[in-house]
Amino acid sequence: MTIPIEDGELSMLPQLPMPIDNAEILSRLVAETPWRADTVVVYGKRHLQPRLTAWYGEAGYTYSGLTLHPLPLTPLLAQLRAAVERATGRRYNSVLLNYYRDGADSMGMHSDDEPELGLEPVIASVSYGATRTFILRHKRSKRTVKLDLTDGCLLLMAGALQAHWQHGINKTAKLVGPRLNLTFRFVN
After folding, report:
1. Domain range for residue 89?
2. I want to staple 176 with a disulfide (CB 3.0 to 4.6 A). Which of 29, 90, 93, 103 is the partner?
3. Residue 27 to residues 39, 62, 104, 161, Cα–Cα distance (Å)
4. Are strands 123-129 and 107-110 parallel, antiparallel or unpaired?
């Protein structure tokens, strides 16, 4: 399903086809991943990221003063990457896993516009677990788009979207369970 948006491409698939059910994928990835609690630089100040992360793939990646060295893809992550590539028709060589343990974990507004992602990065985002609201805000017009990212959904951000929009996940006081988000990308 294409989501109408100016200055970029945005589409969503309600369920990524996988031979393993969503609950098992979530459980295995949470248990098998060597999670990191990293510090990033935002507006010149160091902050502990309000979520846990892990970086896998073929290339290193740097954002907000943090350089990630890749771990080799596990068989489950390779299977997920293949499913995402089939669903999107795009190729990915790396994936960032973000583990939101509860509503207190979040992701500040940002764009995935680092030089190693190229001029028009393609980001394929797969969510497992609790539904969280994904917020996109246009950099010039300040138009806001909110999407509920549900268990098993695939969101594709492409074209000039990263140049013109920021996105994030706010904290919530609502009682929400764990959520895992995998953002597949091609790093040059």
Report:
1. 9-185
2. 103
3. 26, 28, 20, 32
4. unpaired
Crossing angle, helix 22-32 and helix 75-88, to 10 degrees? 130
- Output the DSSP codes for 108-171: EEE----GGG-SS--EEEEEEES-EEEEEEETTT--EEEEEE-TT-EEEEETTHHHHEEEEE--
59 with 187: CB under 8 angstroms?
A: yes
CA 135 – CA 168 distance, rounded (Å) = 5
* Predicted confidence (pLDDT) per residue in 32-83, tens digit: 999 998 776 766 777 777 899 999 999 998 877 788 899 999 999 999 999 9
Would residue 4 count as lying in a domain? no
pLDDT tens digits, 89-126: 999 999 999 999 999 999 999 999 999 999 999 999 99
- Which CATH number do you get for residue 44? 2.60.120.590
Structural domains in the chain (count) = 1
162 neighbors 113 (Cβ within 8 angstroms)? yes
